[in-house]
Amino acid sequence: MDLSVEQPNLSDADGGGEDRLSALPDDVLIHILLLVDDAAESARTSILSRRWHRRRLWAHLPELNFNFIEHRRIGAALAAHEAPGLGLVFALTKDASPESASAWLPIAARDLYGQIYLEVVVRPEEAEERGGGAIHLPCFDKASCIILKPGFLRLALPPSGVFARLKDLWLVDFQVAHGQCGLGDLLSSQRCPSLQSMVVRNARGLDSFTIRHDSLLDMELSDLDRLQQLTIVAPALQKLKVCGCFADPPNRDMSAANISAPQLTKLQWTNDYDPSSIQIDIKRMTLLERLYIQLFIQSGLAGDSQHNHYCMMLLRHFDRIHTLDLLITYPPGICTGPYMMEHMPMLPNITYLTLCVMAYGHSFGASSFDVLRRCTSAKKLDLYLLPERELEEQTPCPSGCTCDEPPSWRMEELALNCLEEIVILRMRGTEHEVALVQRLFHWATSLKRLEIDFHELIPESKVKELRQLLPSFSRPDVCIDWSDL
Question: What is the superkingdom listed in this entry's lineage (predicted)?
Answer without folding.
Answer: Eukaryota
